[in-house]
Queue: 2 jobs
Job 1
Amino acid sequence: MKQSQQATLAAPVSLSGIGVHSGKPVNLHLHPAQPNHGIVFLRTGLPGGDDRLIDARSLEVTATELCTVVGDRETGAVATIEHLMSCLRGLGIDNLLVEIDGPEVPIFDGSAQAFVEAIDSVGVVQARAARKQLKVLRTVRVELGIGWAELRPNSRGFQVDVEIKFDNPVIGRQRKVIDLSPAAYRREIARARTFGFIGDVEKLWKAGFALGASLDNTVAIGEGRVINPEGLRFADEFVRHKMLDAIGDLALAGYPILGTYKSFCGGHRLNIAVLKELLSDRANYAIVDGETRREAGHAEIASGVAVPAFAPDVH
């Protein structure tokens, strides 16, 4: 990212939708925040009328099965945060209070486009405060089965290199590389939707997942083809969505990353694991701004239902 100043929204904006896993309605309010505030969730609607603040940081991640969850499910958590976080990082939003009255961020059409449009409706403003970045100093790597993820030094910006491989011929093997910028995010990533496999639907339903999934918010794969009548938005929409998810998960670094992220057959679990591995040793990274300064780290298709893949870490 080339922007050197921190940014937030010019005005509040609200959205409403349903959670892809819970199937429950939820209201989301995005509030501008002061410099150095970061991205913070305000979870409302908890038992007893309590509210809870949850920092959008990797230390707050409590689950990565099919989606990324921050906070404690017993005292208040927010699930499926990756599409919103991806949009915020992709468009260069540093500071925001995300007020949400339910347990899961709305899925909308399965991509980040609704968040992009909401932000565009109010605009973005920059503060005088310098934007800090997390600079990768040493390569770190995490492996899981055939999958792996790395964060590597790259002083020119944030490059994302994602490759996926599925036995299903509809997807096969796909790879995409971008240098992240707001323009590239809007053009290449924001509209890519989550995807799912029809054969897994009953298993996920029994586990309490995918209760809000439909052809309106998931690219459904079955019988050797894409079931959705409109087809794909991109020929390689699957890897683009995996990249969208990775950008969102890595936004939990708390700062824009100055480095290269590279993965093969990755997913939420690997994304968070490699980020935590980076942050586990202060020799791996530095927090920098204008000057290089170091700081402490810390389906049944007939009924229109498909399974969101949020696809597994190992294929």
Note: The helical segments are 82-90, 113-122, 182-189, 201-206, 237-250, 268-279.
Job 2
Amino acid sequence: MLLRGKTALVTGSSRGIGRAIAQRLAAEGASVVVTARSYTPSPSVRAGAAAALPGTIGETVEMIEAAGGTAYGVAADLEDQQQRLRLVDEVLERTGRLDILVNNAGYADYSVIEHMGMDTFDRTVEHYLRTPFVLSQCAIPHMRTQGAGWIVNIGSVTGLAPVRPFREYNKSSGDVIYASVKAALHRFTQGLAAEVLDDNIAVNCVGPSTAVRTPGASQLIPDTFPTEPVEYLAETVLAMCHLPAAERTGLVAFSLHYPWSQGLPVHSLDGGELLPPLEPPATANPNILPAGL
């Protein structure tokens, strides 16, 4: 129960990576605020077409409560400036405090540069840079008053320099803008960590070492691309949410490399089962530093 008495806000937690993180933090005693665009299945819009994806706020809350945890649901469209600015205040109204902020919510619509529309460009920047900036800005004063806080941004291995000679994936996947903004998020993490270190607020970034096949990302991941279980990423996020900033801040860590290199035990999402160590695959980007950047 590492997080007993703490409150965590996990954005984009109606499904996928966000849901897994919410479950793992709740299993360690945190009261978790589950948020997504709405209480109904939210549409994923790519190339002008919308398709509803499985997963709701209510389902995540029910899963956490069924496992003995505490969770609250708050709907907020993070592309709406007013809803975004109100989110932290809503969390405080419901729970009275905010100790942990996990910036997970995202939007991905890949396209090669030549054919990418400005709407896709703008929405990618909005989700992965502006929103973490705004939510961090709103959360920091409350964390400072409490004497401690933890911010975890969800990064991406695509934010690292691609392997040379370039792989076929890099030539045609269309992930350049997504990857570029994730690289900016990595740097944002490290810069913010320096700014709030003396306030005992830790800021770290965690990304998959390969890829996690979630409902939202599955369309973008080739069938032959190596993927990984989400539990290792959720455990790595947890590792960034309890030590004082002086001991662990400013890291950009990856979900198979970090637990493997640090000997970090990885548990099931409910905390009840110890999973086997999982070595990073040989195909992983060699630019990953096992202990974090």
Note: Residues 14 and 59 are 7 Å apart (CA to CA).
